[in-house]
Amino acid sequence: MPLEDFNADERALFRRLKTPARIQAFLDELPYNLEPDGPTCRSPRMALRHKTAHCMEGALLAAAALRWLGHEPLLLDLEAVRDDDHVLALFRFNGCWGAIAKSNYSGLRFREPVYRTLRELAMSYFEHYFNLQGEKTLRRYSRPVRLRRFDRIRWMTTEEEVWEIPEHLLAVPHIPLITPAQQRALSRVDARLFAAGLLGAVK
C-alpha cells in the first residue's frame, strides 16, 4: 500500500514525527483507549481520528509513522501469563533493535536501539512487566511480523477494525524467555518499582 494513501493531515503529522523518540512522545501524549464501548482494534487513521489508542492501536500507529521514516513496519508480541500481552513497534539503527509502545505502565514503552538481538530487547521489559497482584508475568516473545502482509486490507488507513492483525500475532510462534525452574523461583515485584510502573496510569 503506498504511503500516498495518507491524507494531508496525516502526512503533516508524520512529517513532524522525525525520529522514533518523537513518535513515542506523541503516543505518550495520546490518551489511553480504555474501550468504554467495547473492544476496538482501530487502524492508525481511526486512532488519530478518535484521538486515543491502546497498546495494539498504538503499536500500529507507531509502525505507520516508522514506515513514513523509511523503516520496515514490524510488530513484536510479548506474551504473558495472568496478564495482557503487549505489542511493540520495532525499528533498527546501526544493526541494533529498539521499540516504541503505548502502555498504561510507564516501564513498558520506549527502548533505545541498543539491543543486539530481539531476545535482549524482550528481556529489557521483564522486570517492568507485572500484573496488579505484583507477579512478574512476561514469558515469551514472538518473531517479528511484517505488516506489509496486511497492505491488502489497507491496515494504515482503513476505517474498518483490523482484528486480523492481533489474531495473526497470537498465532505466530513465540519463544520462551525463562525456564520453568526460573518461573517457580520468581519473586514479587519490588514495591517501589510497582509504584513507578503505575505512575500516570489511566484507570
> Which regions contain 5 or more consecutive residues with pLDDT less than 50?
none
Shape: globular
Helix content: 25-40%
Query: What is the strand content?
Result: 15-25%
**How many domains in all?**
1
Q: For the CA atoms, what is the radius of gyration?
A: 16 Å
Number of helices, counting only DSSP H or I runs of 4 residues or more: 8
CATH topology: C8orf32 fold
CATH class: Alpha Beta
| Euclidean distance between termini CA atoms | 36 Å
Question: What's the order of the H and E elements?
Answer: HHHHEEEEHEEHEHH
Global structural class:
alpha+beta
What is the number of strand segments?
7
Features:
203 residues; alpha+beta; C8orf32 fold; 8 helices; 7 strands
Protein architecture, described:
With 203 residues, the protein is of the alpha+beta class. The chain has a single domain (3-197), classed as Roll (C8orf32 fold), CATH 3.10.620. Helix content is 33%, strand content 17%. The chain is built from 8 helices and 7 strands, in the order ααααββββαββαβαα. It has helices at 8-16, 20-29, 44-50, 55-68, 118-123, 164-171, 180-184, 191-197, and strands spanning 74-80, 86-93, 96-100, 111-115, 138-142, 145-146, 174-176. Strands 1, 2, 3, 4, 5, 6 and 7 form a 7-stranded antiparallel sheet that branches. A hairpin with a 2-residue loop joins strand 2 and strand 3 (96-100). The longest helix is centred in the N-terminal third of the chain and has 14 residues, at 55-68. The protein starts with 7 loop residues before the first helix and ends in a 6-residue tail after the last helix. The relative contact order is 0.17.
